[in-house]
Task: inverse folding
């Protein structure tokens, strides 16, 4: 990844912006993006864990309940890069951890 | 005054249709869960204000929604359907073994006397139950671990448990219908199961009267005669008089015996309804004419019901959970189409009107008689 990841100390809470697709915003009754507090390294897993802890209704809708894997028709974008296939415990860019850029959950485009 | 409520699941959300006992003028509320595929929505017989809906979407998986006010407002409840114990395999389309994987809920069957208890039939075929109003779901894994299950092939629509019937005598007997696998019967509330497909014949499979491997599409039972079952199979309309020990064909003079739903009149246990569809290759009515067929003799002799239904240029389908009957003295019959129409008969099928013309493709129709 081009974006620089910076080490983050364990226990330090970060406020991370998360942008969700329409149907998940609607399900969680959110009007816009949400800010979640992430303790420790800011990774896909830690961000989504924090999101699901705050909005349990989203459990199973982004990651499969059983396998924990990203659902096939969703993508994870940040800083104009696609992180969908990156290991879930890799740290996200510093600008996501700082709240400057959102972590985006994006639904695959489809007609019909 | 609202006397009847229709719960309509569609490919783009759910709708609630209400009317008085005349069932002529309908109010439509919705869409609820707009954009989600609602395979099924059903009310509790024990508390008509308690309604469960099963919206799912390829993008976001399954959610379960619950209403405690007859469908006006909704709250999401538990959506975790985890198979119990070791997850075995079944054959995939390419013949390779594939582990069971939850995809969606096809059907909810609420307990007749407890609004918090609901059974769920799911894909890949398995039975789940909640006893806390949908907050948590536990698998009754005796069905998925049946001796024949490792050989269940998915049909084109997936390996789905789509039909559940609970014996109203409260004796623990229940029936499950699974596409391309068949009918299974439990005598102990879903813990243990036996295949119940004797008499079914399926051309094209290596063993036409195999213990399992039959594509049941839908089952129906009249509560006053729980040992009598009716079945719309992939091909063939069938009947059992002994709790699915044996099945006999009752297709009789139907123009085609392919179809999806089957229903029984609320007050006449020998009056049965089907919607013949041209074939498994042509999922629309024969000759472009939408006809419900009714038998008043428990099968074999069928009459077409056409008054008020389109008799030319009609090429919709009627899916397995998209037909229901109410319990008024003049039994109402309802069905929804893949073209988004909901048809209503308030005279046992003699004549039909349209309650909704242009909904999304209808997946399920349930009716609640409230007065």
Result:
């Amino acid at each position: 990844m081009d974006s620089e990841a910076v080490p983050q100390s364990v226990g330090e809470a970060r406020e991370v912006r998360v942008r969700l697709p329409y149907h998940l915003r609607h399900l969680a009754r959110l009007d816009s993006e949400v800010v979640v507090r992430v303790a420790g390294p800011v990774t896909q897993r830690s961000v989504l864990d924090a999101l699901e802890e705050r909005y349990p209704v989203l459990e199973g809708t982004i990651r499969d309940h059983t396998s924990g894997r990203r659902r096939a028709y969703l993508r994870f974008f940040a800083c104009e890069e696609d992180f969908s296939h990156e290991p879930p415990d890799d740290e996200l860019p510093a600008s996501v951890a700082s709240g400057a850029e959102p972590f985006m959950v994006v639904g695959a485009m489809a007609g019909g | 005054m609202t006397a009847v409520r229709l719960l309509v699941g569609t490919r783009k959300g759910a709708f609630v249709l209400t009317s008085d006992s005349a069932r002529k003028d309908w109010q439509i509320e919705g869409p609820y869960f707009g954009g989600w595929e609602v395979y099924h929505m059903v009310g509790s017989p024990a508390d008509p204000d308690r309604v469960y809906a099963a919206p799912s979407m390829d993008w976001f998986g399954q959610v379960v929604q619950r209403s405690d006010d007859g469908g006006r407002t909704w709250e999401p409840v538990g959506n975790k359907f985890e198979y119990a114990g070791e997850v075995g395999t079944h054959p995939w389309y390419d013949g390779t073994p594939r582990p069971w994987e939850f995809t969606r809920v096809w059907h909810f069957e609420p307990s007749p006397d407890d609004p918090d208890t609901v059974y769920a039939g799911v894909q890949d075929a398995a039975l789940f139950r909640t006893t806390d109003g949908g907050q948590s779901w536990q698998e009754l894994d005796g069905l998925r671990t049946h001796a024949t299950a490792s050989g269940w092939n998915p049909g084109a629509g997936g390996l789905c448990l789509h039909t559940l019937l609970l014996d109203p005598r409260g004796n623990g007997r229940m029936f499950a219908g699974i596409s391309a696998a068949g009918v299974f019967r439990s005598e102990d509330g879903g813990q243990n199961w036996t295949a119940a497909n004797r008499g079914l014949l399926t051309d094209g499979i290596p063993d036409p009267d195999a213990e399992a491997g039959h594509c049941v599409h839908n089952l129906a039972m009249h509560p006053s005669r729980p040992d009598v079952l009716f079945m719309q199979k992939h091909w063939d309309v069938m009947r059992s008089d002994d709790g699915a020990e044996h099945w006999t064909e009752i297709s009789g003079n139907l123009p085609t015996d392919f179809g999806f739903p089957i229903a029984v009149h609320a007050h006449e246990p020998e009056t049965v309804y089907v919607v013949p569809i041209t074939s498994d290759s042509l999922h629309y009515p024969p000759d472009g004419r939408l006809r419900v067929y009714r038998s008043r003799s428990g099968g074999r002799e069928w009459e077409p019901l056409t008054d008020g239904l389109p008799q030319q240029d009609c090429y919709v389908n009627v899916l397995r959970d998209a037909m229901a009957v109410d319990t008024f003295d003049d039994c109402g019959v309802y069905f929804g189409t893949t073209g988004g129409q909901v048809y209503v008969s308030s005279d046992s099928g003699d004549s039909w009107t349209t309650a909704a013309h242009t909904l999304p493709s209808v997946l399920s129709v349930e009716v609640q008689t409230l007065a």
Remarks:
- The CA atoms of residues 15 and 37 of chain A lie 5 Å apart.
- Helices of chain A lie at 22-28, 44-54, 94-97.
- The beta strands of chain A are 13-19, 34-39, 74-78, 81-82, 103-107.
